[in-house]
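User: Um, what's this?
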Amino acid sequence: MNAPKFDLAALKNIDFSKVIAIAKQRGVLIACTFIIVVIPVVAWWFRGGIKDSIHETMSKRSKEFDKIVSLEKSAVTVRNPVGDPKSETVSLNSTLIDALKARNESLENEVKGVYRSAVEHNKKNHDIIQTKQVVFPKPLQENEKLLEEIFLPAIGPAYTVLLANNRVNTPPSSADVLEAVKQREISFIRDDLKKKNRSEVTDPKEIEQLAQALTKARLDALVEGARDTAVYLDKGAVRMPPAKGFISVDTCFTWQWDLWVLDDIFHAITNVNTNLKDGVKSSVISSPVKRIISIRIDQPSSVAATSATAEAPPVETEATDAPEEGAEPVAVVVEATTDATGEPIAPASEIIRDFKISFTGLKSCQLYDVRNVKLKLIVSTSDLPKVLDSFAKENFMTVTQLKISPVDSFAAARQGFIYGAEPCSEVSMVLQTIWLREWTTFYMPLGMKNKLGTRGIEKPPAAEAGPDAGEVKSTSETTKS
Protein backbone atom coordinates (compact mmCIF):
# COMPACT_ATOMS: atom_id res chain seq x y z
CA MET A 1 0.00 0.00 0.00
CA ASN A 2 1.27 3.55 -0.89
CA ALA A 3 0.87 6.34 1.75
CA PRO A 4 -0.32 9.88 0.60
CA LYS A 5 2.35 12.54 0.19
CA PHE A 6 2.18 16.27 1.15
CA ASP A 7 4.04 19.23 -0.30
CA LEU A 8 5.70 20.78 2.78
CA ALA A 9 7.23 23.60 0.69
CA ALA A 10 3.77 25.23 0.48
CA LEU A 11 3.91 26.04 4.19
CA LYS A 12 6.32 28.89 3.48
CA ASN A 13 3.50 30.98 1.93
CA ILE A 14 1.14 30.83 4.98
CA ASP A 15 0.67 33.93 7.16
CA PHE A 16 1.05 32.49 10.59
CA SER A 17 -0.16 35.71 12.35
CA LYS A 18 -3.62 35.26 10.88
CA VAL A 19 -3.51 31.61 11.74
CA ILE A 20 -2.77 32.46 15.37
CA ALA A 21 -5.66 34.99 15.53
CA ILE A 22 -8.10 32.50 14.09
CA ALA A 23 -6.81 29.85 16.50
CA LYS A 24 -7.52 32.13 19.49
CA GLN A 25 -11.10 32.80 18.33
CA ARG A 26 -11.98 29.27 17.25
CA GLY A 27 -9.42 27.12 19.09
CA VAL A 28 -11.91 24.63 20.44
CA LEU A 29 -13.49 24.14 17.02
CA ILE A 30 -10.13 23.71 15.32
CA ALA A 31 -8.97 21.20 17.95
CA CYS A 32 -12.12 19.16 17.52
CA THR A 33 -11.81 19.30 13.74
CA PHE A 34 -8.14 18.21 13.96
CA ILE A 35 -9.06 15.28 16.15
CA ILE A 36 -11.92 14.24 13.90
CA VAL A 37 -10.30 14.75 10.48
CA VAL A 38 -6.51 15.08 10.60
CA ILE A 39 -5.54 12.38 13.12
CA PRO A 40 -7.33 9.54 11.27
CA VAL A 41 -5.68 10.61 8.02
CA VAL A 42 -2.23 10.74 9.62
CA ALA A 43 -2.85 7.40 11.32
CA TRP A 44 -3.89 5.90 7.97
CA TRP A 45 -0.73 7.30 6.34
CA PHE A 46 1.60 5.81 8.99
CA ARG A 47 -0.29 2.51 8.88
CA GLY A 48 0.38 2.23 5.14
CA GLY A 49 4.13 2.74 5.60
CA ILE A 50 4.31 0.21 8.42
CA LYS A 51 2.34 -2.32 6.38
CA ASP A 52 4.71 -1.93 3.42
CA SER A 53 7.70 -2.48 5.68
CA ILE A 54 6.17 -5.54 7.27
CA HIS A 55 5.22 -6.96 3.84
CA GLU A 56 8.75 -6.45 2.55
CA THR A 57 10.26 -8.07 5.62
CA MET A 58 7.89 -11.04 5.47
CA SER A 59 8.57 -11.50 1.73
CA LYS A 60 12.33 -11.57 2.38
CA ARG A 61 11.95 -14.05 5.21
CA SER A 62 9.69 -16.21 3.05
CA LYS A 63 12.39 -16.43 0.37
CA GLU A 64 14.98 -17.36 2.99
CA PHE A 65 12.64 -20.02 4.35
CA ASP A 66 12.10 -21.43 0.83
CA LYS A 67 15.88 -21.57 0.40
CA ILE A 68 16.24 -23.49 3.66
CA VAL A 69 13.47 -25.86 2.60
CA SER A 70 15.19 -26.43 -0.77
CA LEU A 71 18.46 -27.22 1.01
CA GLU A 72 16.68 -29.75 3.15
CA LYS A 73 16.24 -31.91 0.05
CA SER A 74 19.30 -31.38 -2.14
CA ALA A 75 20.70 -33.42 -5.02
CA VAL A 76 24.08 -34.90 -4.06
CA THR A 77 26.40 -36.64 -6.56
CA VAL A 78 28.46 -39.45 -5.08
CA ARG A 79 31.40 -40.97 -7.01
CA ASN A 80 32.00 -44.69 -6.80
CA PRO A 81 35.24 -46.64 -7.37
CA VAL A 82 34.35 -47.59 -10.96
CA GLY A 83 33.99 -43.95 -11.96
CA ASP A 84 30.19 -44.00 -12.47
CA PRO A 85 28.76 -41.03 -10.50
CA LYS A 86 25.34 -41.48 -8.89
CA SER A 87 23.01 -38.62 -7.87
CA GLU A 88 20.46 -38.83 -5.05
CA THR A 89 18.13 -36.36 -3.25
CA VAL A 90 18.95 -36.27 0.46
CA SER A 91 18.45 -34.13 3.56
CA LEU A 92 21.64 -32.26 4.33
CA ASN A 93 23.11 -32.24 7.81
CA SER A 94 26.54 -31.86 9.31
CA THR A 95 27.04 -35.63 9.65
CA LEU A 96 26.21 -36.22 5.98
CA ILE A 97 28.45 -33.37 4.84
CA ASP A 98 31.38 -34.75 6.84
CA ALA A 99 30.76 -38.24 5.43
CA LEU A 100 30.65 -36.95 1.86
CA LYS A 101 33.85 -34.99 2.41
CA ALA A 102 35.63 -38.05 3.84
CA ARG A 103 34.33 -40.18 0.97
CA ASN A 104 35.59 -37.78 -1.69
CA GLU A 105 38.98 -37.48 -0.02
CA SER A 106 39.23 -41.27 0.16
CA LEU A 107 38.36 -41.65 -3.54
CA GLU A 108 40.82 -38.89 -4.43
CA ASN A 109 43.59 -40.73 -2.57
CA GLU A 110 42.61 -43.99 -4.28
CA VAL A 111 42.81 -42.34 -7.71
CA LYS A 112 46.22 -40.90 -6.89
CA GLY A 113 47.35 -44.30 -5.61
CA VAL A 114 46.19 -46.03 -8.79
CA TYR A 115 48.02 -43.43 -10.88
CA ARG A 116 51.23 -43.92 -8.92
CA SER A 117 50.92 -47.70 -9.32
CA ALA A 118 50.40 -47.24 -13.05
CA VAL A 119 53.54 -45.11 -13.27
CA GLU A 120 55.60 -47.68 -11.36
CA HIS A 121 54.21 -50.53 -13.47
CA ASN A 122 54.92 -48.63 -16.68
CA LYS A 123 58.49 -47.84 -15.62
CA LYS A 124 59.23 -51.26 -14.10
CA ASN A 125 62.95 -51.96 -14.54
CA HIS A 126 63.41 -49.50 -17.40
CA ASP A 127 66.54 -47.61 -16.46
CA ILE A 128 68.85 -45.37 -18.40
CA ILE A 129 71.98 -47.19 -19.55
CA GLN A 130 75.01 -46.12 -17.58
CA THR A 131 77.69 -44.13 -19.39
CA LYS A 132 80.95 -42.50 -18.40
CA GLN A 133 79.30 -39.08 -18.48
CA VAL A 134 75.73 -37.92 -18.05
CA VAL A 135 73.76 -37.99 -21.31
CA PHE A 136 70.13 -37.55 -20.27
CA PRO A 137 68.49 -35.15 -20.06
CA LYS A 138 71.52 -33.14 -21.18
CA PRO A 139 75.19 -34.00 -21.62
CA LEU A 140 77.60 -32.43 -19.18
CA GLN A 141 79.56 -31.10 -22.12
CA GLU A 142 77.80 -28.97 -24.70
CA ASN A 143 79.67 -30.57 -27.61
CA GLU A 144 77.25 -33.33 -28.59
CA LYS A 145 79.80 -34.84 -30.96
CA LEU A 146 81.23 -36.48 -27.85
CA LEU A 147 78.06 -38.62 -27.76
CA GLU A 148 79.75 -40.83 -30.34
CA GLU A 149 82.38 -41.63 -27.71
CA ILE A 150 80.05 -41.65 -24.68
CA PHE A 151 76.68 -43.09 -25.71
CA LEU A 152 77.18 -45.31 -28.76
CA PRO A 153 79.72 -47.64 -27.07
CA ALA A 154 77.12 -48.31 -24.34
CA ILE A 155 73.82 -48.55 -26.24
CA GLY A 156 75.02 -51.12 -28.80
CA PRO A 157 76.06 -53.72 -26.19
CA ALA A 158 72.81 -53.08 -24.31
CA TYR A 159 70.83 -54.19 -27.37
CA THR A 160 73.09 -57.23 -27.78
CA VAL A 161 72.68 -58.24 -24.13
CA LEU A 162 68.89 -57.91 -24.42
CA LEU A 163 68.82 -60.35 -27.33
CA ALA A 164 71.20 -62.76 -25.60
CA ASN A 165 69.15 -62.78 -22.38
CA ASN A 166 66.06 -63.79 -24.36
CA ARG A 167 67.89 -66.64 -26.16
CA VAL A 168 67.19 -65.46 -29.66
CA ASN A 169 69.23 -67.00 -32.42
CA THR A 170 69.36 -67.74 -36.13
CA PRO A 171 69.35 -71.25 -37.62
CA PRO A 172 72.73 -72.96 -38.02
CA SER A 173 74.62 -71.59 -40.97
CA SER A 174 74.72 -73.50 -44.23
CA ALA A 175 78.43 -74.10 -43.73
CA ASP A 176 77.86 -75.69 -40.32
CA VAL A 177 75.06 -77.89 -41.64
CA LEU A 178 77.13 -78.92 -44.63
CA GLU A 179 80.03 -79.84 -42.39
CA ALA A 180 77.75 -82.00 -40.21
CA VAL A 181 76.36 -83.75 -43.31
CA LYS A 182 79.89 -84.43 -44.66
CA GLN A 183 80.99 -85.94 -41.37
CA ARG A 184 77.93 -88.18 -41.32
CA GLU A 185 78.57 -89.24 -44.92
CA ILE A 186 82.12 -90.33 -44.10
CA SER A 187 81.07 -92.25 -40.99
CA PHE A 188 78.08 -93.93 -42.69
CA ILE A 189 80.14 -95.11 -45.70
CA ARG A 190 82.94 -96.41 -43.48
CA ASP A 191 81.00 -97.86 -40.53
CA ASP A 192 77.63 -98.86 -41.99
CA LEU A 193 78.35 -99.66 -45.63
CA LYS A 194 81.92 -100.82 -45.02
CA LYS A 195 83.24 -98.86 -48.00
CA LYS A 196 86.30 -96.68 -48.33
CA ASN A 197 84.78 -93.73 -50.21
CA ARG A 198 81.67 -92.50 -52.01
CA SER A 199 82.77 -93.86 -55.40
CA GLU A 200 82.44 -97.41 -54.12
CA VAL A 201 78.76 -96.95 -53.26
CA THR A 202 77.08 -98.17 -56.43
CA ASP A 203 74.30 -100.43 -55.20
CA PRO A 204 70.92 -98.62 -55.56
CA LYS A 205 69.83 -99.87 -52.15
CA GLU A 206 73.00 -98.54 -50.50
CA ILE A 207 72.63 -95.21 -52.33
CA GLU A 208 69.10 -94.89 -50.95
CA GLN A 209 70.28 -95.72 -47.43
CA LEU A 210 73.05 -93.13 -47.72
CA ALA A 211 70.59 -90.49 -48.92
CA GLN A 212 68.29 -91.17 -45.95
CA ALA A 213 71.21 -90.98 -43.55
CA LEU A 214 72.37 -87.65 -44.96
CA THR A 215 68.83 -86.23 -44.82
CA LYS A 216 68.56 -87.24 -41.19
CA ALA A 217 72.01 -85.77 -40.48
CA ARG A 218 70.89 -82.42 -41.90
CA LEU A 219 67.69 -82.42 -39.81
CA ASP A 220 69.63 -83.44 -36.70
CA ALA A 221 71.99 -80.50 -37.17
CA LEU A 222 69.04 -78.10 -37.47
CA VAL A 223 67.23 -79.64 -34.49
CA GLU A 224 70.38 -79.44 -32.37
CA GLY A 225 70.57 -75.73 -33.07
CA ALA A 226 66.86 -75.33 -32.32
CA ARG A 227 67.23 -76.88 -28.86
CA ASP A 228 69.49 -74.04 -27.78
CA THR A 229 67.17 -71.39 -29.21
CA ALA A 230 64.04 -69.96 -27.60
CA VAL A 231 62.94 -68.08 -30.71
CA TYR A 232 64.43 -67.50 -34.15
CA LEU A 233 65.35 -63.93 -35.00
CA ASP A 234 65.79 -62.98 -38.64
CA LYS A 235 68.83 -60.97 -39.61
CA GLY A 236 67.87 -57.30 -39.58
CA ALA A 237 64.64 -58.00 -37.69
CA VAL A 238 65.66 -55.54 -34.96
CA ARG A 239 67.00 -52.12 -35.92
CA MET A 240 70.33 -51.86 -34.11
CA PRO A 241 72.05 -48.60 -33.09
CA PRO A 242 74.97 -47.45 -35.23
CA ALA A 243 78.47 -48.23 -34.04
CA LYS A 244 79.76 -44.78 -34.92
CA GLY A 245 78.66 -41.44 -36.30
CA PHE A 246 77.52 -38.03 -35.12
CA ILE A 247 74.09 -38.12 -33.44
CA SER A 248 72.17 -35.65 -31.30
CA VAL A 249 71.13 -36.18 -27.70
CA ASP A 250 67.50 -36.40 -28.88
CA THR A 251 68.39 -39.27 -31.21
CA CYS A 252 70.26 -40.95 -28.36
CA PHE A 253 67.12 -40.79 -26.24
CA THR A 254 65.08 -42.34 -29.06
CA TRP A 255 67.51 -45.29 -29.13
CA GLN A 256 67.13 -45.61 -25.36
CA TRP A 257 63.34 -45.44 -25.63
CA ASP A 258 63.35 -48.09 -28.37
CA LEU A 259 65.35 -50.34 -26.05
CA TRP A 260 62.58 -50.07 -23.43
CA VAL A 261 59.96 -50.97 -26.05
CA LEU A 262 61.99 -53.97 -27.22
CA ASP A 263 62.49 -55.10 -23.65
CA ASP A 264 58.71 -55.25 -23.12
CA ILE A 265 58.13 -57.10 -26.40
CA PHE A 266 60.77 -59.74 -25.70
CA HIS A 267 59.57 -60.06 -22.12
CA ALA A 268 56.06 -60.88 -23.37
CA ILE A 269 57.44 -63.42 -25.87
CA THR A 270 59.68 -65.03 -23.25
CA ASN A 271 56.77 -65.31 -20.83
CA VAL A 272 54.58 -67.19 -23.31
CA ASN A 273 57.52 -69.39 -24.37
CA THR A 274 58.28 -70.37 -20.78
CA ASN A 275 56.77 -73.50 -19.26
CA LEU A 276 54.84 -71.95 -16.37
CA LYS A 277 54.61 -75.23 -14.45
CA ASP A 278 58.33 -75.68 -13.86
CA GLY A 279 59.68 -72.34 -15.13
CA VAL A 280 61.77 -74.04 -17.81
CA LYS A 281 62.31 -72.07 -21.01
CA SER A 282 61.21 -74.16 -23.97
CA SER A 283 63.12 -74.64 -27.17
CA VAL A 284 61.83 -73.15 -30.40
CA ILE A 285 60.41 -76.56 -31.39
CA SER A 286 57.84 -76.49 -28.57
CA SER A 287 57.56 -72.71 -28.08
CA PRO A 288 54.36 -70.89 -29.11
CA VAL A 289 56.39 -68.10 -30.73
CA LYS A 290 58.74 -69.70 -33.26
CA ARG A 291 60.29 -66.84 -35.16
CA ILE A 292 60.52 -63.05 -35.18
CA ILE A 293 60.65 -61.82 -38.75
CA SER A 294 60.66 -58.08 -38.05
CA ILE A 295 60.07 -55.49 -35.33
CA ARG A 296 59.58 -51.89 -36.45
CA ILE A 297 58.99 -49.21 -33.83
CA ASP A 298 57.32 -45.99 -34.97
CA GLN A 299 59.09 -42.76 -34.11
CA PRO A 300 57.63 -40.64 -31.28
CA SER A 301 54.79 -38.49 -32.59
CA SER A 302 55.41 -34.76 -32.81
CA VAL A 303 52.84 -32.17 -31.76
CA ALA A 304 51.79 -31.65 -35.39
CA ALA A 305 51.31 -35.39 -35.93
CA THR A 306 49.23 -35.90 -32.79
CA SER A 307 46.98 -32.94 -33.60
CA ALA A 308 46.17 -34.34 -37.06
CA THR A 309 43.61 -37.08 -37.47
CA ALA A 310 45.03 -39.86 -39.63
CA GLU A 311 44.43 -43.52 -40.14
CA ALA A 312 46.95 -45.93 -38.64
CA PRO A 313 49.19 -47.48 -41.32
CA PRO A 314 48.01 -50.89 -42.55
CA VAL A 315 49.66 -53.99 -41.18
CA GLU A 316 50.89 -55.08 -44.59
CA THR A 317 53.10 -52.01 -45.01
CA GLU A 318 56.74 -52.96 -44.89
CA ALA A 319 59.00 -50.71 -42.86
CA THR A 320 62.03 -49.30 -44.61
CA ASP A 321 63.73 -47.59 -41.71
CA ALA A 322 66.23 -50.36 -41.08
CA PRO A 323 69.67 -49.43 -42.40
CA GLU A 324 71.19 -51.68 -44.99
CA GLU A 325 74.03 -53.94 -44.02
CA GLY A 326 77.29 -52.02 -44.12
CA ALA A 327 75.59 -48.68 -44.76
CA GLU A 328 76.87 -45.61 -43.00
CA PRO A 329 74.66 -44.53 -40.06
CA VAL A 330 72.42 -41.59 -40.78
CA ALA A 331 72.96 -38.56 -38.56
CA VAL A 332 69.66 -37.31 -37.12
CA VAL A 333 70.13 -33.77 -35.84
CA VAL A 334 67.44 -31.86 -33.94
CA GLU A 335 67.77 -28.10 -33.77
CA ALA A 336 69.10 -27.02 -30.39
CA THR A 337 66.66 -25.19 -28.13
CA THR A 338 67.05 -23.53 -24.77
CA ASP A 339 63.43 -22.83 -23.77
CA ALA A 340 60.59 -25.21 -23.03
CA THR A 341 57.63 -24.61 -25.34
CA GLY A 342 55.29 -27.46 -24.37
CA GLU A 343 52.45 -27.87 -21.91
CA PRO A 344 52.82 -29.27 -18.38
CA ILE A 345 51.79 -32.82 -17.56
CA ALA A 346 48.10 -32.94 -16.57
CA PRO A 347 47.21 -36.30 -14.92
CA ALA A 348 43.72 -35.06 -13.98
CA SER A 349 42.80 -33.88 -17.47
CA GLU A 350 40.11 -35.68 -19.45
CA ILE A 351 41.35 -38.11 -22.10
CA ILE A 352 39.74 -37.34 -25.45
CA ARG A 353 39.53 -40.52 -27.50
CA ASP A 354 39.85 -40.54 -31.28
CA PHE A 355 38.48 -43.79 -32.72
CA LYS A 356 39.61 -42.87 -36.21
CA ILE A 357 43.15 -43.74 -35.15
CA SER A 358 42.49 -47.15 -33.56
CA PHE A 359 39.70 -49.03 -31.85
CA THR A 360 41.13 -48.00 -28.45
CA GLY A 361 40.79 -44.32 -29.36
CA LEU A 362 44.09 -43.55 -27.63
CA LYS A 363 46.61 -41.08 -28.98
CA SER A 364 49.52 -39.16 -27.47
CA CYS A 365 48.43 -36.50 -25.00
CA GLN A 366 49.82 -34.60 -22.00
CA LEU A 367 49.51 -37.72 -19.84
CA TYR A 368 51.24 -40.30 -22.05
CA ASP A 369 52.85 -41.05 -25.41
CA VAL A 370 51.62 -43.75 -27.78
CA ARG A 371 54.22 -45.65 -29.77
CA ASN A 372 53.01 -48.23 -32.28
CA VAL A 373 55.08 -51.28 -33.14
CA LYS A 374 54.69 -53.32 -36.33
CA LEU A 375 55.50 -56.91 -35.46
CA LYS A 376 55.69 -59.96 -37.75
CA LEU A 377 55.98 -63.40 -36.13
CA ILE A 378 55.70 -67.10 -36.86
CA VAL A 379 53.41 -68.59 -34.20
CA SER A 380 51.96 -72.00 -33.44
CA THR A 381 48.40 -71.56 -34.69
CA SER A 382 46.75 -73.23 -31.68
CA ASP A 383 48.78 -71.06 -29.28
CA LEU A 384 47.90 -67.72 -30.90
CA PRO A 385 45.40 -66.78 -28.12
CA LYS A 386 48.14 -67.32 -25.52
CA VAL A 387 50.51 -65.08 -27.46
CA LEU A 388 47.97 -62.26 -27.74
CA ASP A 389 47.15 -62.62 -24.04
CA SER A 390 50.83 -62.38 -23.12
CA PHE A 391 51.14 -59.09 -25.01
CA ALA A 392 47.96 -57.78 -23.34
CA LYS A 393 49.45 -58.49 -19.89
CA GLU A 394 52.70 -56.69 -20.67
CA ASN A 395 52.89 -53.02 -19.71
CA PHE A 396 49.84 -51.37 -21.29
CA MET A 397 50.16 -53.10 -24.67
CA THR A 398 47.19 -53.58 -26.98
CA VAL A 399 47.01 -55.44 -30.29
CA THR A 400 45.15 -53.02 -32.54
CA GLN A 401 45.56 -54.78 -35.89
CA LEU A 402 46.03 -58.43 -36.76
CA LYS A 403 46.54 -60.43 -39.94
CA ILE A 404 47.08 -64.22 -40.12
CA SER A 405 48.26 -66.40 -42.99
CA PRO A 406 49.29 -70.10 -43.07
CA VAL A 407 52.94 -71.16 -43.15
CA ASP A 408 54.53 -74.05 -45.05
CA SER A 409 56.67 -75.65 -42.33
CA PHE A 410 58.45 -77.90 -44.85
CA ALA A 411 59.51 -74.92 -46.97
CA ALA A 412 60.71 -73.22 -43.76
CA ALA A 413 62.71 -76.34 -42.83
CA ARG A 414 64.51 -76.16 -46.17
CA GLN A 415 65.62 -72.67 -45.11
CA GLY A 416 66.81 -74.01 -41.75
CA PHE A 417 63.82 -73.09 -39.55
CA ILE A 418 62.46 -75.99 -37.50
CA TYR A 419 58.98 -75.21 -36.15
CA GLY A 420 57.92 -78.64 -34.90
CA ALA A 421 54.98 -80.83 -35.88
CA GLU A 422 52.10 -78.43 -35.14
CA PRO A 423 50.66 -76.13 -37.84
CA CYS A 424 52.04 -72.59 -37.75
CA SER A 425 50.87 -69.20 -39.01
CA GLU A 426 52.54 -65.97 -39.97
CA VAL A 427 51.07 -63.23 -37.80
CA SER A 428 51.39 -59.54 -38.64
CA MET A 429 50.19 -57.20 -35.92
CA VAL A 430 50.34 -53.64 -34.70
CA LEU A 431 51.07 -53.24 -31.00
CA GLN A 432 49.97 -50.04 -29.32
CA THR A 433 52.30 -49.24 -26.39
CA ILE A 434 51.64 -46.55 -23.78
CA TRP A 435 54.41 -44.58 -22.04
CA LEU A 436 53.48 -42.28 -19.14
CA ARG A 437 55.26 -38.95 -19.34
CA GLU A 438 55.41 -38.78 -15.55
CA TRP A 439 58.64 -40.80 -15.68
CA THR A 440 59.84 -40.72 -19.32
CA THR A 441 60.18 -36.93 -19.33
CA PHE A 442 62.36 -37.13 -16.25
CA TYR A 443 65.18 -38.20 -18.58
CA MET A 444 63.89 -36.65 -21.80
CA PRO A 445 66.09 -33.96 -23.44
CA LEU A 446 64.60 -30.53 -23.99
CA GLY A 447 64.52 -30.86 -27.76
CA MET A 448 62.49 -34.07 -27.53
CA LYS A 449 60.12 -32.46 -25.02
CA ASN A 450 59.48 -29.56 -27.38
CA LYS A 451 58.93 -31.96 -30.26
CA LEU A 452 56.30 -33.83 -28.25
CA GLY A 453 54.84 -30.59 -26.86
CA THR A 454 55.37 -31.25 -23.16
CA ARG A 455 57.27 -29.61 -20.33
CA GLY A 456 57.40 -32.90 -18.49
CA ILE A 457 58.98 -33.46 -15.10
CA GLU A 458 62.13 -31.45 -14.56
CA LYS A 459 65.14 -33.38 -13.32
CA PRO A 460 66.26 -32.15 -9.86
CA PRO A 461 69.73 -30.55 -9.64
CA ALA A 462 70.97 -33.37 -7.41
CA ALA A 463 70.52 -35.82 -10.27
CA GLU A 464 72.78 -33.87 -12.62
CA ALA A 465 75.95 -35.36 -11.15
CA GLY A 466 77.06 -38.26 -13.30
CA PRO A 467 78.70 -41.49 -12.14
CA ASP A 468 82.45 -41.79 -12.05
CA ALA A 469 84.16 -43.62 -14.85
CA GLY A 470 85.02 -46.45 -12.49
CA GLU A 471 81.42 -46.83 -11.37
CA VAL A 472 79.89 -47.58 -14.75
CA LYS A 473 77.23 -50.22 -14.35
CA SER A 474 77.28 -53.24 -16.62
CA THR A 475 74.82 -52.91 -19.47
CA SER A 476 73.68 -56.45 -18.86
CA GLU A 477 72.22 -55.30 -15.53
CA THR A 478 70.11 -52.64 -17.20
CA THR A 479 68.31 -55.01 -19.55
CA LYS A 480 67.35 -57.83 -17.24
CA SER A 481 63.66 -58.50 -17.08
Q: What stands out?
A: The first strand starts at residue 74 and ends at 78. The longest helix spans residues 27-72. Confidence is low (pLDDT under 50) at residues 307-336, 462-481.
